[in-house]
Design brief:
Length: about 400
């Protein structure tokens, strides 16, 4: 059995402006709204891209109704969406803040959610402040919890430190133990740096022995104020492939009990026969990101807090005076949209992995290639190509007996 990647076409990557006419009916549906409750983070991880993580800005309660009015009344609203509290450490603001916010959201739902869209909450946290009170809060509001944890202490504490330079692993594990005592399911995001690559067994065993079985890998990326990634060094790509190969072997031994997000998503596309022609990161208003001042952006959430030479910042409007629809006619949105769409088309016509990738994220393309209107990046070679090659090869071995 041969499991084929898609064949790119040879069409030229030169497109006219008419190709990018603003067609609001094709934007959305909103699947994810990332809201920044605070820009502050109580850690100072050395690979973090957020420039304002030392500032104790907090979302004003007066912005909650305008934010949710903008969402519920948008033509981009679909049947359901997730609100993810993130982009700073979300638990650095107290539970009382969220209780007040959630009350206002319920009121906004009563007033504006006439289409009865279903709303779920999630939180992406470093976990160090989790205690019983937070667990009660997560359970009360049925909040999905994602924890940032880079494997065993000797790897995690190399990068995820306090401002005083102290490791955070023990505190994060205390938070995880609290979630487990309360039987709260959670997933983990594990950032892979060059330091991780010699330790697939140690990382896997650490997660497995600690009852952590739902893991996603984020690659250390060059972006925002983090100007270079250890994964860009010479020879690292081969070590990365060996790491993923070994992690696949270890994962396969658990008969599905241990899940790696990257393996799951590629396998599900292969088994279903579905192919992607975009991702939420490059489809306008599939994702909306809103900062603590009510400024909003779309595409990749990591764009909201950064500034670039080519595009300036990526703030498209503010919920107090703009709608998601109105900013689509602005020059800034149109430049970003045109370049992102050009990049996706270039991917479609040049890359045989397009059907399992969907054209990648603009932020990787900008930080590596200097423009959204481009295709391959090191990030996509790691995140898509290397993983797809290994998964396809392993599945072919299984199917060919
Ligand atoms: S982002 Fe990379 S892997 Fe994805 S389609 Fe473009 S070139 Fe291919």
């Amino acid at each position: 059995m041969t499991i084929a990647k898609s064949t790119p076409t040879s069409e030229s990557a030169i497109f006219s402006n008419e190709d990018f006419a603003i067609a609001l009916s094709q934007f959305g549906p909103i699947s994810l709204v990332v809201i920044q409750p605070t820009s502050f983070c109580n850690l100072n991880c050395d690979y973090c891209y957020l420039p304002d993580r030392h500032l104790k800005n907090r979302l004003s309660l007066n912005l909650v109704e305008p934010i949710f009015k903008a969402i519920f009344t948008s033509r981009f609203l679909g049947d359901y969406f997730t609100v993810c509290w993130h982009a700073g450490e979300p638990l650095a603001v107290p539970i009382s803040f969220y209780e007040a916010v959630f009350e206002q959201i319920e009121e906004a739902e009563r007033q504006f959610n006439t289409r009865q869209a279903c709303l779920m909450h999630s939180i992406q946290t470093n976990g160090i402040l989790i205690d019983s009170a937070w667990c009660d809060f997560f359970q009360k509001h049925d909040i999905h919890v994602g924890i940032s944890l880079d494997g065993p202490a000797f790897l995690h504490d190399t990068h995820r430190r306090t401002r005083k330079g102290l490791g955070s692993h023990a505190s994060t594990m205390r938070g995880i133990a609290c979630l487990q005592e309360h039987k709260i399911p959670f997933s983990v995001i594990c950032v892979i740096t060059a330091d991780s690559l010699d330790y697939p067994d140690e990382i896997f065993n650490f997660f497995w022995e600690n009852g952590i079985t739902d893991v996603g890998f984020n690659m250390e990326e060059t972006e925002g104020v983090h100007q270079s990634s250890s994964l860009e060094r010479a020879g690292v790509e081969e070590r990365y492939r060996a790491f993923i190969e070994r992690f696949w072997e270890l994962t396969a031994q658990t008969d599905g009990a241990f899940k790696v997000r990257e393996f799951e998503s590629i396998c599900s596309l292969i088994y279903s026969g579905d192919r992607l022609d975009k991702t939420d990161m490059n489809a306008p208003f599939a994702i909306v990101s809103i900062d603590h001042q009510g400024n909003f952006s779309t595409f990749d959430p990591e764009l909201l807090s950064v500034k670039t030479d080519r595009y300036g910042d990526f703030i498209l409007g503010n919920v107090l005076k703009d709608t998601f629809e109105s900013v689509c006619y602005g020059e800034k949105f149109q430049q970003i949209y045109r370049d992102i769409a050009t990049g996706v088309r270039e991917c479609r016509h040049t890359c045989q992995y397009f059907g399992i990738c969907g054209g990648g994220a603009g932020s990787n393309k900008y930080w590596e290639n200097g423009t959204f209107a481009s295709s391959e990046t090191k990030a996509c070679r790691y995140r898509i190509k290397a993983i797809a090659d290994i998964v396809l090869e392993e599945l072919e071995n299984v199917f060919s007996g």
